[in-house]
Design goal:
The protein is an alpha+beta fold. It has one domain. The chain has two helices and six strands; from the N terminus they run E-H-E-E-E-E-E-H. It has a six-stranded antiparallel β-sheet. A hairpin with a 3-residue loop joins strand 3 and strand 4. Helix 1 crosses helix 2. It starts with 11 loop residues before the first strand and ends in a 15-residue tail after the last helix.
């Protein structure tokens, strides 16, 4: 799937931190995909597009325009895998900064839902087949 997203200069930006559970799950799911990971945030009608560099959010009404982006993740600065990861939040729409708290929570819920859907159905077993002569 290919999506082209346009963005102007950000209207605002700030340094934030992402809880370890969210960052770690994002990296785990991304490692299982080829290219980008698409995460629908149905409750907000947003789509998160995750790649190696950033997490970009678009609105369902204007899919080609960025609402917000999370960039410059710094996982190396944390002392433990359980510590939050700092990043730069860039806002391309006036209301994006206001919805940031909800966005982080809904993003984690959507990631957890994706993980449940893609989880193995059960324990793997190797079946032995008799050779027919």
């Amino acid at each position: 799937m290919e999506i082209t997203v346009y963005r102007d200069a950000p209207l605002a930006s700030e340094v934030r931190s992402l809880p370890a559970a969210t960052y770690n799950l994002t990296r785990t799911l991304l490692s299982r995909t080829v290219g980008a990971l698409f995460v629908p945030l149905r409750s907000m009608q947003f789509l998160a597009i995750v790649d190696q560099e950033e997490i970009l959010f678009v609105d369902h009404l204007f899919k080609e325009l960025a609402v917000a982006a999370w960039q410059n993740f710094n996982p190396g600065a944390r002392e433990s895998l359980h510590d939050p990861v700092t990043f730069d939040a860039l806002y391309y729409r006036e209301d994006a900064q206001v919805s940031m708290g909800r966005l982080q929570g809904e993003f984690l819920k959507a990631l957890q839902q994706l993980e449940r859907r893609n989880a193995p159905a059960g324990e793997a077993r190797v079946l032995k087949f008799e050779r027919m002569s």
